[in-house]
């Protein structure tokens, strides 16, 4: 089906272009883009930068404006609730192991880590099954409950 360029911003603020492969599904006839693990759909910064800005304590080496980081936090707060629900559903549907919670009060990253492990690049590992199961919400307004 071809390819298209995709902007990618590193921790340092350096911008790079990736060539993303486009594929047409033979069942649904929609065009899908093959994203590498380091990217989050609809985000320019890589998953490691976003995760670093959201981690406790935050990494200070992310070259992003304060307003960008606040938008990430707002998006992640809403998305993580949705993501944990999708990951719960996928783990039940496919009988996948989930690490039991030892405490009731956990950070959102710890909750997602129960499904994908707590090693680095947790966000990238949480994004992949959600995107691949076609459960990724493209409209951020759909995530917010008013």
Quick structural overview:
This is DUF6431 domain-containing protein. This protein has 146 residues and is of the alpha+beta class. It is built from 4 helices and 3 strands; from the N terminus they run βββαααα.
Give the overall silhouette: flat
Strand/helix succession: EEEHHHH
Question: How much helicity do the residues have?
Answer: 25-40%
Instruction: Give the N-to-C terminal Cα separation.
Output: 40 Å
InterPro entries: DUF6431 (IPR045536)
Pfam families: DUF6431
Domain DUF6431: 2-72
Protein name: DUF6431 domain-containing protein
How is this fold's topology laid out?
Elements: E1 2-9, E2 15-24, E3 31-34, H1 47-54, H2 66-93, H3 108-116, H4 122-132
Helix pairs in contact: 2-3, 2-4, 3-4
Protein described:
InterPro entries: DUF6431. The structure is a single chain. This protein has a domain at 42-143. The protein has 4 helices and 3 strands. It has helices spanning 47-54, 66-93, 108-116, 122-132, and strands at residues 2-9, 15-24, 31-34. The protein has a 3-stranded antiparallel sheet with strand order 1-2-3, with no helix packed on it. Helix 2 (66-93) packs across helix 3 (108-116), helix 2 packs across helix 4 and helix 3 (108-116) crosses helix 4. The chain is flat, with a radius of gyration of 16 Å. The N and C termini lie far apart (40 Å).
């Amino acid at each position: 089906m071809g390819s298209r360029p995709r902007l990618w911003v590193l921790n340092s603020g350096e911008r790079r272009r990736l060539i993303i492969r486009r594929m047409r599904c033979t069942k649904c006839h929609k065009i899908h883009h093959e994203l590498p693990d380091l990217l989050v759909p609809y985000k320019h910064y890589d998953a490691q930068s976003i995760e670093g800005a959201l981690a406790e304590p935050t990494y200070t080496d992310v070259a992003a404006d304060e307003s960008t980081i606040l938008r990430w936090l707002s998006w992640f707060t809403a998305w993580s609730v949705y993501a944990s629900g999708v990951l719960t559903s996928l783990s039940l549907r496919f009988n996948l192991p989930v690490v039991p919670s030892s405490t009731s009060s956990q950070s959102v990253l710890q909750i997602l880590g129960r499904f994908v492990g707590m090693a680095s690049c947790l966000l990238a590992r949480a994004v992949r099954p959600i995107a691949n199961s076609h459960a990724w919400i493209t409209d951020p307004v759909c995530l917010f409950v008013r």
